[in-house]
Design a protein that fits this description.
- By secondary structure, the protein is mostly helical.
- The chain has helices spanning about 5-20, 25-40, 50-60.
Length: about 60
């Protein structure tokens, strides 16, 4: 699987996990590699999500 597709799939998975899981730290786990992939991507325009979107989601979905 292409790296950008894997990163996007992880972020897509993170959002419903946050809603449905009692262990919210587990929901953040797939989103963090997405941020890293976007931050280091040579062609970030190839992604369907952008770094600002992922950073905003992570910032508003913190584990207390």
């Amino acid at each position: 699987m292409a790296p950008q597709l894997l990163a996007e799939a992880r972020f897509v998975l993170a959002r419903p996990l946050w809603t449905k899981q009692h262990d919210r730290s587990r929901a953040r786990t797939p989103a963090e590699p997405t941020r890293n992939a976007l931050a280091t991507a040579q062609h970030p325009g190839n992604f369907n999500v952008d770094l600002d979107e992922v950073n905003a989601w992570l910032a508003t979905h913190r584990v207390k």
